[in-house]
Design goal:
By secondary structure, the chain is an alpha/beta fold. The protein has 2 domains: 203 residues, NAD(P)-binding Rossmann-like Domain (Rossmann fold, 3-Layer(aba) Sandwich), CATH 3.40.50.720; 120 residues, Rossmann fold (3-Layer(aba) Sandwich), CATH 3.40.50.720. The protein has 14 helices and 13 strands. The strands form 4 sheets. Strands 3-2-1-4-5-6-11 form a 7-stranded parallel sheet, with helices on both faces. Strands 7-10 form a two-stranded parallel sheet. Helix 2 crosses helix 8. Belongs to the NmrA-type oxidoreductase family. InterPro entries: NAD(P)-bd_dom_sf (IPR036291), NmrA-like (IPR008030), NmrA-like_oxidored (IPR051164). Keywords: NADP.
Length: 356
């Protein structure tokens, strides 16, 4: 493990050859860890991607998961930006790119500290001379019925509804605003993944589906949602991280599935993927919270999950359209929900006590 006070290479050559160290925050969480792993694996597979040392920021470098990242080739940086934000500057000194991952599904991030956590990294990145910040967000403004192509950050659409200060959506909005205040537009790339991440269905509902042959969902069958796959989120992030800043700076991308679906249609896709009849149990919000708390013993994680879902609705009988930025970025389209369940049928076919 490298301590935050260790000086590293200068940024002087990175602006010339577009290569340099990449720092990933939240590497103890699902997304951050997956991004670190993918960055390292891609360099092993493609020699032309050498020259991007990977640093993993996490609160505890002694865990089994952290050591696995170290074995793969990551340099572990033990940090707590909330308690000691001053240490982050030294940790980011010499970094070329920062993958800013704020993941409330871990134990550290809450509705109170998400914005301060991210601000500590943003301020430190500016002071340390980081050239490019890649920000991952599970939220996006509501799209018009016919959205334009990938917008620049200056042309970003803002939500027309008031935001509660006690929500994760508001925390992420504050983070975005602060990022734009501190860094120039050309230094920021935003990757959005709104809606249901397919892996959440496995993480939160595998036991329920296996036991009841049903998928519990909010009691709004016609609510329209987006969906995405963790692998697609990671792939898009790594693609941007390995690319010259000038190629993606000042842009935002939305990584979503091929189409929107209602909650009722979500149940049909679960049945199709598992190749057996899965009904949809429409439950009220208190019941859904209780179901989630059985496998996620953390109220903040439950609140975050429910906020991510159900952000888009039918509008006058028409559906919102979805951008397909993953295909524009990588030349490959996202995984469909049916494909995800076909690949993971066994996880939903037998009763299990818990899912980590």
């Amino acid at each position: 493990m490298t301590t935050p006070t260790t000086p590293r290479r200068s940024n002087s050559t990175s602006s010339i050859n577009n290569k340099g160290p990449i720092f990933v925050t939240g590497a103890d969480g699902e997304k951050g860890s997956a991004i670190v792993r993918s960055l390292l694996e891609m360099q092993l597979q493609h020699s032309h991607l050498n020259g991007f040392p990977v640093y993993a920021g996490l609160p505890d470098a002694s865990t089994t998961e952290a050591r696995e990242l170290e074995v793969l080739g990551a340099t572990l940086i033990e940090l707590d930006p909330i308690v000691k934000p001053e240490a982050v500057v030294d940790a980011l000194r010499g970094m070329t790119k920062l993958c800013l991952v704020v993941d409330p599904h871990g134990q550290q991030i809450t509705r109170v500290n998400a914005a301060p956590y991210a601000r500590a990294y943003i301020d430190a990145a500016k002071q340390a001379g980081v050239e490019h910040v890649i920000f991952l967000s599970p939220f996006s403004p509501c799209d018009p019925t016919t959205p334009p192509g990938t917008p620049t950050l200056d042309a970003r659409r803002r939500p027309s509804f008031p935001l509660s200060p006690n929500t994760f959506r508001m925390q992420f909005s504050i983070i975005e605003s602060h990022l734009q205040l501190i860094f120039s537009t050309e230094q920021i790339t935003t990757i959005r993944y709104p809606g249901i991440v397919h892996q959440h269905l496995l993480k939160f509902f595998a036991n329920y589906i296996a036991t009841h042959s049903a998928l519990p969902l909010p009691n709004h069958p016609h609510m329209t949602i987006e969906s995405s796959d963790l692998g697609d989120i990671v792939r898009a992030t790594c693609f941007v991280a390995f690319s010259p800043t000038s190629r993606h700076g000042g842009k935002e991308y939305k990584v979503t599935g091929p189409q929107l679906m209602t909650l009722e249609e979500l149940g049909h896709r679960v049945s199709a993927g598992l190749r057996r009849d899965i009904r949809v149990d429409m439950v009220e919000m208190p019941s859904l919270r209780e179901i989630l708390l059985e496998v996620v013993p953390n109220e903040e994680s439950v609140a975050y999950t429910l906020e991510m879902w159900g952000l888009q609705w039918r509008l006058n009988g028409r559906r919102f359209e979805v951008t397909r930025d993953l295909e524009a970025l990588t030349g490959q389209s996202g995984k469909t929900l049916v494909e995800y369940f076909e690949d993971n049928r066994n996880a939903f076919s037998v009763p299990i006590q818990s899912v980590n």
